[in-house]
Specification:
One of its GO terms (molecular function) is catalytic activity. The protein is α+β, with helices and mostly antiparallel strands. It is about 35% helix and about 15% strand.
Length: about 475
């Protein structure tokens, strides 16, 4: 796919108008998304107006930002002016439209980007599959018989399918990292609290983080900088960083191709050190408890009056969380505090950690399970096996796709995306981009995405949405 950076350059230097760029993206969505079910609403008329305004500014010689004319997708729990924020549920469908955009949406717009589509998700972000009972199951563009992952599955699929070059999502326990891994795109969970949550419907407020998806590491950096409101000017030399591999909990149940891919990364970087996170299983359990308790508490008033409006699977989990007694929740927060201290102490000796993002490729929709401990378990509940423990510590984590097999004769399953996590100390996103860029340039990370459909300008000015 044409990168966001290339699209913006083409618009800024007059090779292509912003209107033409948006029309091409609209046409691509109309042609392709019926196979993916990633888009829930198309913001075509607003996008056209914004594109025309950018073209006028360029004609006047004004500065239009590093993402000028670039269309982006928005997970449907971010406020978008004039639209109802559904958070993937019909429960909120009768709410009034929002008067303003979420803060990070406004920041992307200030950088020249144009919101084009609202994207599918697990209801209220509770799941790892984007199996939405109201809006449909989002399918993986790499193999539409497989799950896209969740809860930001629509965002990952929209990028992987070449519908938009960048999208935004949220990550509480892995909802950016899991779908990025399964769909073969790049995603970033920034440092806890770094990006503002204003205008974002919460799931578990003490764990929620928002971040970008992109088709390559350069676009991911551009999108993050726009959302952050500042440039990463202090990116270090990757060769001078201390990198280690996570073992123990993060070595279990890996498919052979993923283990081999991790070996290639560590070999290229000259990594010999393997470290373990203490009590990762207990940290994951604590994450489950905190998420359930906070999510259940948020929804309890509505569950008392409108329980049947919820997806049954979501409703049952929220009700169970709302009924948790205080004692296990208090213990979970104590574990969280202890675990965070232990993890942060590791970064006194290393700069970046490498770990798998999921145990293997995307599960099939008709068999939504993964193998853990030699047994099939629910994918919806367990795809976050490697992401959930890390969420507790508040660190920035970059999800990156391994490069596809170079050898001929690879099976269809061997050609499916596999993802890894790069983890750094809080505030050290620049270190993640340093390592990710080096590995991408070496051909070890990165999965190609398709190009957008060509635009037919005979219909581009019709004004139809």
């Amino acid at each position: 796919m044409t990168t966001a950076a290339a699209q913006a350059n083409a618009v800024r230097f007059g090779v292509r108008t912003a209107r033409e760029t948006i029309e091409a993206a609209i046409e691509t969505i109309e042609i392709r998304d019926s196979a993916y079910v990633s888009v829930t609403r198309l913001l075509a008329e607003r996008a056209r107006r914004m594109a025309d305004a950018i073209d006028i500014r360029i004609a006047r010689g004004e500065q239009v930002g590093p993402l000028a004319g670039v269309p982006f997708g928005v997970k449907d729990l971010f406020d978008v002016a004039g639209e109802v924020t559904t958070a993937g549920s019909v429960v909120l469908a009768s709410d009034p439209p929002k008067e303003d955009d979420a803060i990070v949406v406004r920041r992307l717009i200030a950088a020249g980007a144009i919101p084009l589509a609202l994207l599918n998700m697990d209801e209220f972000a509770y799941g790892f599959a984007t199996e939405n009972a109201h809006y449909g199951v989002t399918r993986n563009p790499r193999d539409t018989d497989r799950l896209a992952g969740g809860s930001s599955g629509g965002s990952a699929a929209a990028v992987a399918g070449g519908l938009v070059p960048i999208a935004i999502g949220s990550d509480t326990n892995g909802s950016i990292r899991v779908p990025a891994s399964l769909c073969g795109v790049w995603g970033l969970r920034p440092t806890q609290g770094r990006l503002p949550l204003g205008g974002v419907y919460p799931f578990a407020a003490s764990l929620d983080v928002v971040g970008p998806f992109a088709g390559d590491v350069g676009d991911l950096k551009l999108a993050f900088e726009a959302m952050d409101g500042r440039s990463l000017s202090d990116i270090p030399d990757a060769g001078g960083l201390r990198v280690a591999r996570l073992g123990g909990w993060f070595e279990q149940d890996l498919v052979p191709a993923l283990r081999e891919g991790l070996d290639r990364l560590t070999g290229f970087l000259g990594i010999s050190r393997i470290v373990e996170l203490p009590e990762a299983a207990r940290a994951r359990a604590a994450s489950f408890v905190i998420t359930a308790a906070e999510g259940g508490s948020l929804h309890l008033p509505r569950l008392r009056t409108r329980p049947m409006d919820y997806d049954p699977a979501t409703r049952d989990r929220l009700m169970a969380g709302a009924m948790l007694p205080a004692a296990p929740v208090i213990r979970a927060h104590r574990i969280r505090n202890w675990f965070r201290e232990q993890v942060h102490a590791l970064f006194e000796h290393v700069d970046v950690l490498i770990a798998p993002a999921t145990v293997g490729p995307a599960p099939r929709i008709d068999q939504p399970t993964i193998m853990v401990g030699g047994k099939p378990v629910s994918a919806r509940a367990n795809l976050g096996l490697f992401t959930q423990p890390l969420s507790l510590a508040g660190m920035p984590i970059l999800a990156a796709p391994l490069a596809p097999p170079a050898h001929e004769g690879a099976s269809a399953e061997e050609q499916l995306p596999l993802g890894v996590q790069l983890i750094a100390a809080p505030g050290k996103e620049a270190s993640l981009f340093a390592v990710a860029t080096a590995l991408s340039q070496a051909g070890l990370l990165g999965f190609p995405t398709p190009a957008p459909a060509p635009v037919h300008m005979s219909s581009s000015n019709s004004g139809n949405s």
